[in-house]
Amino acid sequence: MSDATLNAIKDNPDDFAVQVSDQIESFIVSVTEVAKGDDPDSAVPYLLLELSQLLLAGGRLGAHEDFVPVERYEPDIGPEPDVDEMRLKLAALLDPVDVYSEVFDPYEPRTAPVACRISDDLADVITDLRHGMAHYGAGRVSEALWWWQFSYLSNWGPTASAALRALQSLVAHVRLDTPLDSLDGLDTDSPADVDDGLLEKQAGAVMAAEIGVPLGMQPER
What we know:
disordered C terminus, globular, single chain, mainly alpha, two-stranded antiparallel sheet, 59% helix
């Protein structure tokens, strides 16, 4: 399908491209708002919800037949927007539960877990999504769909899925009243003399005060 045909149906709310772009734009706007830190108590459950909705769009892209862009070479979209400020704000907002353990490929035998950061994941996902939005905004709909599909399979899909599992785990620890185990070894940027018990205590306090209350849990007296 040509870009001219795709552009002709962009205003149709039932169109696949419109639905996917709307979900992606909503995610970008929502995470940008969360990063401002105006409502820190709701950050984790809200990010859980937003990632879940984004991955619905990703699943539709992954299940769809391959999109083929009209142009042989990808058009230049200009400089990529800087996400470092957002990354740092999210890291401060989520500290000290920002770091988690992840296995990149569950089908790769004996793959060792590595330390990841939710803040890095969200920033990387938004970078990929914005790249496609630049094409979409310029009217190159087939290029945008190709990019979102390709990057979903190669990068932002696995990254968003990993961050979603981490956030879901945090919510589960709170709702099921199961404190986090020691965080020793997860944060590769931490100095060697950081007290593990302090990290665990800090993480538990964040989960109870900033995550538990928005989820309806009563604080201890």
